[in-house]
Amino acid sequence: MKIFKFDAGVGQPITMYDSNFIMSRIAMTEKPARIGCMYLRNNGVVGYHEATVPQLLLIVSGEGWVSGKEGEKTHITQGEAAFWERGEGHETTTDSGLTAIVIESEELEPERFLKRR
């Protein structure tokens, strides 16, 4: 498991077209990607299972705990992302709830855009 940051502090300012915002690039794929939004309520759990494809979990609100093949729980919060390789066992839990975007694709390479925590 790898932990990355995607908050505004690691993004780039965009000023083209009279714009004024920060963009944190996350992924680019040529192969199909599944993208979803996951809502875990208080004491929510995504039970331990193996990733069928590389998977990136981006916390957009709340906080919780993630673990990878080593089983050690790592705290994760808004603006951070966890990445698991295909076949890697993992679990996500939260005491107070969290919302996350999940991206699954054969060719995810978060190191291309995201910074390690």
Draw up the topology in text:
Blueprint (H helix, E strand, L loop, with lengths): L1 E4 L6 E3 L6 E3 L9 E8 L4 E6 L4 E13 L5 E5 L2 E5 L4 E5 L4 E8 L9 E2 L1
Antiparallel strand pairs: 1-8, 1-11, 2-3, 4-10, 5-9, 6-7, 6-8, 6-9, 6-10
Describe the structure.
- The protein has 117 residues and is mainly β.
- The chain has a single domain (2-116), classed as Jelly Rolls, CATH 2.60.120.10.
- Helices cover 0% and strands 53% of the residues.
- It has strands at residues 2-5, 12-14, 21-23, 33-40, 45-50, 55-67, 73-77, 80-84, 89-93, 98-105, 115-116.
- The strands form two sheets. Strands 1, 4, 5, 6, 7, 8, 9, 10 and 11 form a nine-stranded antiparallel beta sheet that branches. Strands 2-3 form a two-stranded antiparallel sheet.
- 22% of the residues are buried.
- This is Cupin.
The profile of the biggest β sheet is:
9 strands, antiparallel
What is the arithmetic mean of pLDDT?
A: 95
CATH class category: Mainly Beta
What is the CA-atom radius of gyration, in angstroms?
A: 14 Å
The 3D shape can be described as: globular
Organism: Chungangia koreensis
InterPro entries: RmlC-like_jellyroll, RmlC_Cupin_sf
Protein name: Cupin
